Amino acid sequence: MLGKTLITLLLIASPLIQAQETFTVLFLGDSLIEGLGLETEQAFTSLVDERLKREGYGDITIVNAGISGSTSASALERMQWYVRSRPDLVILSLGANDGLRGLSVDNMKGNLAEAIEFAQSNNIQVALTGMLTPPNMGPEYTSSFAQVFPDLAAEYQLPFMPFLLLDVAAIPELNQADGIHPNIEGSRIVAEHVYQFLLPLLP
Amino acid sequence: MLWLKLAYKEISNNFRFSLFFIINLSIGLIGFIALDSFKNSIDTHLTNNSRAILTADAQISGNAPLTEVEFTLADNIFNTDYEYSDQISFLSMVAGNDVSRMSQLIAIDASYPQYGEFVLQEGGILTDELRQQLFSSNSIWVAESLMLTLSLTIGDSIKIGAMDYTITDIIDIDPSSTISVMSNFPAVYMGLEQIQATGLIQFGSRINYSRFYKFIEDVNMDSWEDEFRQAELDILGDTRRISMTTHQERSEDLGRILAYMNDYLGLIALIALFLAGVGAAYLFRSFFTSRFKDMAILMCLGGTPKQAYLMTLIQIVLLGAISASIASVISFITMPVLPSLFENFLPRGFENQMELSSFVLALFLGTIGSVICCLPILSKIYDLHPIALFHEKIQPSKSLPHWQRHVMSYAPILIVFWSLAIWQSNSVMIGSLFIAAFLIAIFILGLVAWYILKFCGSFSNHSSVTQKLALRNLSRNRLGAISCFLAIGLGSLLINLIPQIEKGLQEEISQPDDFSVPDFFMFDIQPDQLAPLETILADYGHTLSFVSPQVRARMETINAGEVSAFEETPDEQMQRRRSVNLTYQDALKSSEELVAGEMWDGPWVFGSDELPGISLEQDFAERINVKVGDTISFDVQSVPITGRVMNLRTVDWNSFQPNFFISFQPGVLDPAPKTFIAAVSNVPEEQHLSIQNEIVETLPNISIINVGQLVASILDITNQISWGIKVMAYLAIFAGLVVLFSIARYEVKTRFWEINLLKILGANFKDVQRMIQIEFGILGFFAALVGVSMSLLISYAISWFIFDSIWSLSWGITIFSIFAISTLSVVTALVATRSVLKQKPLQLLRTD
């Protein structure tokens, strides 16, 4: 009986029933969003959530929709899944894995554009975070990769945060042993930047 | 000197008997040397193969330049002399003819590679001269696939970072290309000094720095990685992580199989040692017992027990040393020739090497072994009286000697064999367990023998004369018969142990029936990409196999409680993220086997009262402390979903199929965002590049990993291991039978006096033969039956302790062992009897 209620509730109605009453911000992204290697409470989305609660934004719900290893190719399908829950704002934060794997920049741009268009056509506000790829990938690739995000933001008139890992990327003390994923300290800095970026977008 | 002279005289006086003794002992020791040296050869062969894949014995690597602190860290753990080779590698876009492709840049120094062969298409096998050419100019060597993709030829130049480089050769064989995921990008080799000029190594770059080690001596590398990890944490803290890989760990599957093989070979060494030990102990003790008359004479003439013992001991040590030397010489001459005789059956490049240790051990067993094995009898000399001379058949006193003396006399055997067991198996635990099992086996065999022989006595009243005689012989000469029973029983146990373990290991190593070597693994396939991917593959005549959906989720609760079980596991990653990849499937795959609960029939019905079913991999379930019937809740991308564990399954990780720890009943996860994993098999080599390029062009996000080469190289080694395991099993049976043969032969020869007496008393040829047949039939059959049964129990225990409970009953070998050992005992005894019977009864009257 429990299962029945639970699943019915979730699959039919919406994963986020409270979305109707509160303002829901959904972070759609990869391991950087998921908080790979960190406790749930240490992921920057949790830290932002905590901060908002502390500052009195009790009716804001933060949803972490990060999947480690995911590329921009998954953007549309996942956007379609989450749109059912009618989030108010989607922070689109995919592309880092495309860059690490040297995937086609044009393709990435197309994938992200599709997802943005789908959300916008469903009257859901989208914000975008930018990403950089490590310099070893070569100057041409890194620059064309980095350019995709501001171009998309301009084209679809999206609120834009130029670099999600600002002040954190490539600093050993702020990252885990793999050198890519922020540690707790790094996560705090990302949370601070994201919080500042988010404030003007909230009701 | 006097004693030596006396001993020599004794030996030459009893020349025929001494010769017989030497032959028997030599055969046993040759079996030991063969088994031991073959074990070493297989070990070396596999080690070399596995080294070639890493190109080194061990590697440390990190994502920042390695420092002296880290080198010292490694030095302290290695604790041996070595040579090293440094390497820098990273991924980068390489452009030529207006096309760019992600490639793997590898910068090498003059010591690369330390093992394995690196071959260039033009230049051939890598030489110092070729390396110098690479280092002295802006030249690079490029993988053929990149040449084809970018339409390049030798002499063309490509742009890497800020610089142009000239292609001077194409890589033909790259030993390290098989394993890592990164190596799926085409390789570009350049000099270590030249890589800085690319300008790609700068702040934020993801660079891999490695040092490869080649050890001058063989060292035991088990547990190094853990040690290294710990030391690294202690010294460097958590912020900087470098990793250590030993050649065995390079591939996880391979490492596991190599570890099994290693333990298996250790076990073989133990078995060889104990087989030789049982044979030698039996022969020595029989010899010693047969010399009691001489000792009695010596003591009658005024000798002390000590002198009597010394004289016999010197004889035995002399005979043992001669036997060991003969065995060594014969082995030394024949062993190197053997591989050429069996060339077709041996893996490529296999060499039979003889380690000095095998010979030293043989010599040790032959000499010192004789002394310690005879100590328990020495303790009986003190009870020997000259009156023994007047007994028709001289035996040591049946009354037990003083218990302390008795225990003391057995202690050296125990200590020596215990130490040898630990040394041979390279493990205190395994060696000790083996000794314990062996002692228990001796006790049980002795007990069973006692009752069987006792029963023989009481049964004898209802039999014909010959049967009566045979049965009473066994019953009356119970101590002697028991030692023969013990020897045959232990021999049977040891013989059957290895094939029994072999069966389980073979099943573990072998692939499922529908196995086909996958050439590509594909990840990150989006649902809408499956159809276009199938179309591309269909153009080449292939289909996707093992298509598995993968849904990312976070494990939230078990039985509605916090996932606390993770907290106790050492798996830090797991503990931290609790993130898991789920899949769903209709039925079990060929690589999976149900071990508890039931598989669902059909998808979960939406709205059903039941929770959806979950299938867990057995070890994983154990790790998170979950059993059938428990419920687990997941956060599937913001949607909480609870399921009930319906079954546990084992997964054959050697199947090279996508396998998952957690699998859901269909009908639950289907609408969740997911990607697919799939494999493609049987792709001809010439299609690899065009298929890969076409997918990269049209479905760029799909990761294609060319595992064909990796799987092939793992399979190659696995097959060699499988071969080695089998050969060693047969060799163990053969060596064991040889030892049993010498025991049975010896036993009959010592009955020479009694057989002759029967002849004098008028027994005919047939009657004596029949008597021997019954006696040895009973001894052989029951000893083999008990020994083999115990081997099943012990092999099961060994599998449980060492081989992760891999065990499978091998009926064929079990029945064969019992049959072969019984038959061998009877036939050997009969053949030996014939030669005794041929002698004239007059022999009886001679002193010898």
Automatic annotation (TrEMBL), chain A:
Keywords: Signal
Any Pfam family matching the protein: Lipase_GDSL_2
Single GO molecular function: phosphatidylcholine lysophospholipase activity
Signal peptide: 1-19
UniProt domain SGNH hydrolase-type esterase: residue ranges: 27-189
Stated name of the protein: Arylesterase
Source organism per UniProt: SAR86 cluster bacterium
TrEMBL record, chain B:
Keyword field contains Transmembrane: yes
GO terms under cellular component: plasma membrane
Ranges where the ABC3 transporter permease C-terminal domain occurs: 267-383, 727-841
Compartments, record wording: Cell membrane
Its membrane topology: Multi-pass membrane protein
Protein name per UniProt: ABC3 transporter permease C-terminal domain-containing protein
InterPro entries: ABC3_permease_C (IPR003838), Membrane_comp_ABC_pdt (IPR038766)
Transmembrane intervals: 15-35, 264-288, 309-338, 358-378, 407-424, 430-453, 479-498, 723-744, 776-803, 809-832
Keyword line: Cell membrane, Membrane, Transmembrane, Transmembrane helix
Principal subcellular localization: membrane
